[in-house]
Amino acid sequence: xxxxxxxxxxxxxxxxxxxxxxxxxxxxxxxxxxxxxxxxxxxxxxxxxxxxxxxxxxxxxxxxxxxxxxxxxxxxxxxxxxxxxxxxxxxxxxxxxxxxxxxxxxxxxxxxxxxxxxxxxxxxxxxxxxxxxxxxxxxxxxxxxxxxxxxxxxxxxxxxxxxxxxxxxxxxxxxxxxxxxx
Length: 182
Known about the structure:
Helix content is 50%, strand content 10%. By secondary structure, it is mainly α. The protein starts with 9 loop residues before the first helix and ends in a 23-residue tail after the last strand.
């Protein structure tokens, strides 16, 4: 029996590569820096070609296995990084939004020209008040969820539930008494 392996963190790996390249750049050795960048490009090309081959083979013989791989965040991130993800952008966005923790998130629209995705927290059907939702927290959650599934989204804009306008507060007061009533 093999031990379970924790999935790699694609964002952490990317940051680590950047840190190493930055250290080389800070050393002042331009030849070493250029060689390191060329090494990264060569490895990206090699792994990208391998991933393309894996996708082609799985798509022909094991479509259910391919579907499981597409749902795996590190694998999906690698496919997006190499521009190999076979799902249409709309499906990848929907998959990412479905994985946002907390309240469901509604897609309002995506502008491909600017890379701006507009979303809002789905209304809960409660009292109509905002419930203290933090737009920045929702934006961060959406951006984190999208990181593994899209490279096309460059910015996320969050609208208030029910549109851009704030909800109207309903004031409840006593009914005025009619004149002469006691």
